[in-house]
Amino acid sequence: MPSIVFKDVVKTFGKVTALKGIDLNIKEGEFFVLVGPTGAGKTTTLRVVSGLEKIDSGEIFIGEENAAEFSPAERDVAFVYQSFSLYPQLTVRKNLEFPLRSPLYREKEEEIKERVEMVANLLHITPLLDRMPDALSGGEMQRVGIGRAIVRKPQIFLMDEPLSDLDAKLREELRVELRQIQLDLKTTTLYVTHDQMEAMSMGDRVAVLNEGVVHQIGTPKEVYRNPADLFIAGFIGNPKMNFFDCKVAGDTALELDGGLLQLNLSEKCTDRISGLSKKEGLILGVRPEAVKIHGEEAPCRFEAAVLFLEHFGSMNIVNMQIGERIFKARTRPTFSVEPKSRVWIELDEESLLFFDSETGKAL
Amino acid sequence: MAQAIRKKRKKGIKVVGTVVIFIMIAVVFVTYVFPIFWMGVTALKTKVQIFDPKPTIIFKPTINNFKVFLGTAESGEVGAGRAGAATSFIGAMGRSILMTSCVTLLSLILGTMAAYILSRYKMAAKEDLMFVILSTRMLPPIVVLVPISLLFTNLGLKDTFLGFLLLYTMFNMAFSVWIMKSFFDDVPFSFEEAAMCDGYTRLRAFLKVVLPMVKPGLAATAIFCSILVWNEFLFAIVIGTRKWVFMPPTIYTMSYGSEGVIWGVLAASSLIYIIPVVVFVYLVRKNLLRGITFGVIRG
Amino acid sequence: MSMIRLVNMTKRFGKTVAVKNANLEIEKGEFVVFLGPSGCGKTTTLRCIAGLEDPEEGEVYIDEELVNDLPTLDRDVGFVFQHYALFPHMTAYQNISFPLRAMKQKKSDIEKEVMRVAELLRIKDILQLKPSHLSGGDLQSVALARALVIKPKVFLLDEPLSTLDAEFREEARTMIKKIHLEIGSTTIYVTHDQMEAMAIADRIVTMNLGEIQQIETPEYIYHNPVNMFVANFLGSPGMNFIECSLKNSNTLKLGLDGKELKVNDAIVKKIRAVGKEKSMVMGVRPEDIKLNPKKDANGFDMEVTIVEELGPENIVNLRSGEHILKVLTEPDVLLKTGETVWAVPDKDRIRIFDPQTQKEIL
């Protein structure tokens, strides 16, 4: 299974530059996720790896070879699409056999039959083999689509938001199944999605893409705990990170939202605050799970008003307000507090993140 | 707010609506089917019965008019020179069938290939090109009758198989290309891409993957093209002077004699002429279902 | 006095029964969510209320008035379609004013109303643009505005967020909830995403295969699911189910290759009362299971297959033979694929279900 390397890849479509100099280093057998909003260039990245689009400058290496010399068929990649591309006039079985009957493969009949059955087993679609695509549900169709990609045992999987059209429940199930299959087959996989939860759940490493530029590459944990800029911090994580405008007002004091709130931190933070290169024009980011709610006042706490609670079963989200700013805290499901009551908020100091409000970069 | 402007409708209106629609459909149906029915009735009548001032549906039928095809008709009924004109009818029928099949096939092949390219590839001024193709059908054919007639004479194409083949195919290209292109546009390109990644060449992907999905388009185009050629009268009569005489002119000449119009022969030969087309459309009807790609692609 | 009432409503499409015997009552001003998987009948039910479909049996009442024979435009409902259904050749303003123009309102009144909703949805500055120039979020706002401009009694939304990117859904649903609070409309919202439903619903109507399963507040449904479908559908991930039988007065024998689990007396009592000792299903939520790397007498051993690190929490996927179990843990729990770990369910949170009726044994 090869690695995939992008060196300063640029791709334009007429006047629009979809990829503005992308560098990627995808390891052998890695499940690599490209995440970002619609239009970021994720699908374009997949297509240039497959060879269906040619790049304008830069280089792409698949394994040791420069991919430019190979046609899509020769690159041995398999696509899984968002909108199911099953051939409607063929049964499921024939759909799965189709890749194996291409001029490049020419497998023997028994081999074809065996492979198809193995794949059907893996994806739990054996009872569907003799049905036509229009008799399948969305989830079943997508499984067949994945099966069609696997049956060839390609060296690279390219998946373009394959779960986006499915029900939320089905997505939860299939993302684990898909990941398990990839782990078993050890195929190098490039997976594209706009859903950050999928990215976090499935990726060995994640690349956050926006407007044709890679913002950060790292493991899900790294990208979650240490986002490189404001965009990533706001994009990854559900519910979103809370942001406050911030100014340094002392060794351990921060003025938030133009003086609306004075945040006093403990001694441990002195180094951190003095290390901030700027004193003004900062943005403080803190995730909902790092916001702790208490009933009494204490030195490092500030006061806020509760707006309402959202119950999600396994957790609660408390929406609170200070001045115009609404922010959220994540609590245990048993936590209860009345709307309009006043509470004391403590922020987990180790999870505080600072960003430069002009450049957006993390400090 | 809508309360102020609300009017209550009664269930009765629904029933009346259904009845009205039913009546409208019945009217349309009768308008289209009755002439054919009347033609059939006329074909079975003798000359005397046809000219009866009282139109009758119940009468003693005769198949004499149909016998014109076999050359065994009673000449008194069908007029001089027609009783033994079997070869005229049978020959013309054969030529019509041959020409229609060849033109339909050629139009399908050329039109489909052109439509596929126009659908898949980027090119400058594509809309203009499509318009030019469509414009060939914007003028009534009679406008180009004289020029083409002269052109064909000069090129030696008059009254030849090749001449008619080229002429009718050209007439059909606009339909062929426009219909097929719209069907190809409905097939997402990802189907061919997936096949190409699997190792299929563009051509094989087209033949094995895309073509089966546009069967309704092929069926519709085939029907359009064949009906156009089958019914074509003007150029057939002007350009097909001696050897290549098709059925429409034949029906005309055979039904018009010194005594005026021989209605019986006209009716019988027209009725027979309808049959092959009806059979063709009937055979092809299953492929006209446009459900074939819908429901599978939901994006 | 209810705002919307369905009585024994059934809707068929040919031989398929899309909605079977639906009975529900929605109060004025309530925000109700129809929740269920694709094909469960939630959209069909919504459309029957709107008048876009006619039920074969049963009655639909809006504001205590029988509306079965009333066409949509007379039912005073605002409908937001999944794919917006905006007229592409009209500007946003014209799209929004369309229902008012159809009712032949005065131009000055129309302008006033359009501006009112545009202000509410914050789309004043895009009113002159056509749909092709608008972003997904703006399109949705315009579709909402069009439904709201007639001040409908009932506001119906068919999966309004499904076409938006995941990152905009949170904002959009908060906006919809906010609008609901401001104008106090009775709202029905259709979705397959249980998280959305939990976040915004006053009450949730869960549906499956055309039948209504349970109608309750989100909290109640989560903690008191009426059957296995509801128990599994709500929750991310949903409830885990393990087949089991009663071994003795304090132990269950699990369908996980015969592993055993110690349980409370309360549970044993329940099981014995119904006489289902031989075949039951044990249900326990992922957040109610603790993991112990060392052998634990109160749990059973399983193998770790995949750990999903979602950020604020982890989902640990466990396997024993063909059976899968999902557990929610804190993010700093470090487990590797292939490790053996002991799953210890919270004894007070175990539920028992009857596999035939699918209902909980209480």
Notes on the structure:
The complex is a heterotrimer of chains A (363), B (299) and C (362). Chain A is α+β, with helices and mostly antiparallel strands and 363 residues long. Chain A has 2 domains: 4-235, P-loop containing nucleotide triphosphate hydrolases (Rossmann fold, 3-Layer(aba) Sandwich); 242-356, Nucleic acid-binding proteins (OB fold (Dihydrolipoamide Acetyltransferase, E2P)), CATH 2.40.50. In chain A, 23% of the residues lie in helices and 33% in strands. Chain A is built from 9 helices and 20 strands. Chain A has helices spanning 42-50, 92-97, 109-122, 138-150, 168-185, 196-202, 220-225, 230-235, 270-274, and strands at residues 4-13, 16-26, 31-35, 57-62, 65-66, 77-80, 156-160, 188-193, 205-210, 213-218, 242-248, 253-256, 261-264, 282-286, 291-294, 302-311, 316-322, 325-331, 342-347, 353-356. In chain A, the strands form 4 sheets. Chain A has a 6-stranded mixed beta sheet with strand order 6-7-8-3-9-10, with helices on both faces. A 5-stranded antiparallel beta sheet of chain A has the order 13-12-11-14-20. A 5-stranded antiparallel beta sheet of chain A has the order 15-19-16-17-18, with no helix packed on it. In chain A, strand 4 and strand 5 (65-66) form a beta hairpin. Chain A is elongated, with a radius of gyration of 25 Å. By secondary structure, chain B is mainly alpha-helical. In chain B, 67% of the residues lie in helices and 1% in strands. In chain B, a hairpin with a 2-residue loop joins strand 1 (256-257) and strand 2 (260-261). Chain C is of the alpha+beta class. Helices cover 26% and strands 34% of the residues of chain C. Chain C contains 9 helices and 20 strands. Chain C has helices spanning 42-50, 92-102, 107-121, 136-148, 166-183, 194-200, 218-223, 228-233, 265-274, and strands at 2-13, 16-27, 31-35, 57-62, 65-66, 77-80, 154-158, 186-191, 203-208, 211-216, 240-248, 251-254, 260-262, 280-284, 289-292, 300-309, 314-320, 323-329, 340-345, 351-353. Chain C has a 6-stranded mixed beta sheet with strand order 6-7-8-3-9-10, sandwiched between helices. In chain C, a hairpin with a 5-residue loop joins strand 12 (251-254) and strand 13. In chain C, helix 3 (107-121) crosses helix 4 (136-148). The model of chain C has no long low-confidence stretch (mean pLDDT 88). The chains are: A alpha+beta (363), B mainly alpha (299), C alpha+beta (362). Chains in contact: A-B, A-C, B-C. The A-C interface holds A 37-38, 137-138, 167-170, 172, 175-176, 179-180, 183, 194-197, 200-202, 220-221, 224, 235-240, 287-289, 310-315, 317, 330, 333 and C 37-39, 136, 165-167, 170, 192-195, 198-199, 218-219, 222, 233-238, 285-287, 305-306, 308-313, 315, 317, 328, 331, 337.
